[in-house]
Amino acid sequence: MPEINASKVSRWDGHGREHVVRVRRTGVQRTISCDTCGWRQGAQFLPWLKAQEHLAQAHQATVDPTEGRDPH
Length: 72
Ligand SMILES: [Zn+2]
Fold this sequence. Notes:
Elements lengths: L7 E6 L4 E9 L2 E6 L5 E4 L3 H13 L1 E3 L9
Antiparallel strand pairs: 1-2, 1-5, 2-3, 3-4
Bound molecules: zinc ion.
The site of zinc ion (ZN) has 7 residues, from helix 1.
């Protein structure tokens, strides 16, 4: 189940490092900023999608830590 109201998106890269993009609401706009490289962008729609795109393209971080979690 996607976290529609999540204020951040985190992904792991192939080296097991976590990269986090934060989503901040500023009026109707949302600002997304990357903890790893300082990248920022305004996004009115689907900020989480843009965050995921950035993580995948800039950091090759595509592993969602909240998916496929080990049951034990
Ligand atoms: Zn980044």
